[in-house]
Amino acid sequence: MFSSSIPDPPPPLNVNAIRQVIFNQALVGYTIWSGGEGLRVLQADSSLSNIPITVVMGVVGFLPLLLLSRSVEGSESAAVANLNLSTNMFVLRIFGPVPRPIVAFIVSAIIALVTGVVEETIFRGEALPVIASWYYTNNPLNLGLLSPIQIDPTVVGAVLSTILFAVLHVNPSGVIFGGNEGRGEAIQDAIVLFFFQLCTGTTFALLFLASGNLAVPILSHALYDLYTFYATHLEVTSQMEYVKKEIQTNDISSTLPRSASLAPPSAMDRSVEDRWISERGDDFVTGARQTFYLMDTNRDGVLSRRELRIALYSYGIKLTQDQSEALVNEADADGNGSIDFYEFLAFIGPEGSTTKAVKRSLLGVE
């Protein structure tokens, strides 16, 4: 019979981080909350007179962003690896590692709504018409100069305000202050984020131009941010719950007689585990098990080439597809095309860590 214990309480919600996010948006949208120009624009350009149409257009505008987000989340491209990782870490920092479905939904909805109102009012409600007016006033034709192309000022306003939207969502600190080794990666991350935000900003601008109603891009923007925060929270925490469950299951099965285990490891698997417990200790094997199941994102108990390649991005290791195939071939002792835990343990055991095992065994470096 196993001894029962009171589980540790979950870590508290990061109220300071939540407050900081909302404060930043409130500061940017100061003229909205203070009753200034922002509020005037919001009231003038937003209409809820036909709520069904507004909702339908907002949801329709959200759908392509959902598809874009899902494709980025599921991509094994090194170009978007840090974008996915930074999103996961940001949400993890706010909500913590345990599932909080109700609280996370409420907080995500508040942040998403505030962000949608502030950013759409500023970029679509204020910046777009200001830039369009400036272009119309300074248009070469209006100044008596020759111009081979007559461009609609509204289009110019939409394009330039969208570019401004994308630029201001890029954090330049890594590019400016990063060392020589990290600056190249920071530049790549900034470019990826810029084009990603260019896609989202273009969608919001088109919604505003098509509807003439600022409420439509606000709704679409809020839905997108709500999905990003809430879905990421559910995904990250469910993966951690899976890791916890697998480790606990192994701990329980290891205390049972081998005949009582539902799926006991083979004698060869047991010998691999016993070897590394003997040589490196229980903590090493437990850590390896945790790493393995964090990588196992489809939760089938084995690592595919794709799962391994994506997971290694978080270790700063960006492999090509051929390199990841070679890595699986080296670690896959039984040749079935995937890596089970005991193969993973045997692969990293000699080096003592996943990073060293990959770099030394595959790349031939320390």
Commentary on this structure:
Helices cover 71% and strands 0% of the residues. It has 366 residues and is an all-alpha fold. It has two domains: 15-237, no CATH class; 265-361, Orthogonal Bundle (Recoverin, domain 1), CATH 1.10.238. Mean pLDDT is 84; it is low at 1-6 and 258-262.
- CA radius of gyration is 26 Å
What is the CA-CA span between the terminal residues? Answer: 47 Å
**Dominant shape:** elongated
Number of domains: 2
Number of strands: 0
Specify the number of helices.
Answer: 16
Keywords for this entry:
366 residues; mainly alpha; Recoverin, domain 1; 2 domains; 16 helices
What does the secondary structure layout of this molecule look like, with pairings?
Layout: H1 15-28, H2 30-33, H3 37-45, H4 51-73, H5 81-95, H6 101-137, H7 153-167, H8 173-177, H9 180-211, H10 215-255, H11 267-280, H12 282-295, H13 305-313, H14 321-331, H15 341-348, H16 354-361
Question: Could you give a short description of this structure?
Answer:
This protein has 366 residues and is mainly alpha-helical. The chain has 16 helices and no strands.
